[in-house]
Amino acid sequence: MTPVLRSHARAWVLVLSLLSVPALAQGLPDLPPAEACWGQGPDADGDGVSDACELQVAAAFMPTLWIAQGEKGVARRPYFAARPLSSALRTLRIFYMSAYSEDHGIPSLGIFNVFAHDGDSEFQVLDVHFADGRWYLDQAFLSAHLETACDSSGWYGYAQLEYAGAYRGAPRIYVAVNKHGAYNSKATCDRGCYFTDSCSQGRQEALDPVNRLAARNVGSLGTPLINAVTVNGQTERLLNDVEFKGWDDQAGRSNSTPYRARLAQFGF
Known about the structure:
Strand content: 25-35%
Shape: globular
Keywords: Signal
Number of helices: 4
Radius of gyration: 21 Å
Distance between the termini: 68 Å
Signal peptide: 1-25
Order of helices and strands: HHEEEEEEEEEEEEEHEEEH
Number of strands: 16
Largest sheet: 5 strands, mixed
Helix content: 10-25%
């Protein structure tokens, strides 16, 4: 075969190999279109987007958690809020409240855990938009010990995230063992909080695998839909400026930061 023919042959092999690669799935179909969301009811929080749309989109983009091996504080009772970020661009912002029962802190000499506390008010914020029949994830803010000495929180563009399913769909979030800081990758997690966070081998599960966020929309600070929640005789006021105890108020332990300031920070 002449050099020219060999060159053409290699080119055709490259073209055929590219054609044989399945197209990367992007975004989420089979959700309410924008016209079924904006200006429709019921709309209990009065933000211009229907309750049904908020729930369906929030549930579809609900993060998949990578739960590290050895995690002791996996118990949680998630809630969410959703609001239009840009009606013109058909963009929603979704605030996921992880609402862990407790934070086990950093093991110290195998005797006790440093910085352990009741409740853990970590959260994730996702911005998503509708276009051409699909919903797409644009960016995500992942809290990791926000406004503490080892704050490792940050915004991540969709290309910086991993996905358990469709690309630009529900992101995979790596959760630091026992402390629940959220990260976009295992490598980022293992560098978090001055290298004290870790996301070792683990398992995947949805943020709210049982309820899928049904009846968990808190609304907003201006129009609360859910605030006082009582579980096993203990009440949390999710939207008040009070510490979050994770329905696990143990004597002698500190509690977690209120969710109220976090919601306000992101426009809720």
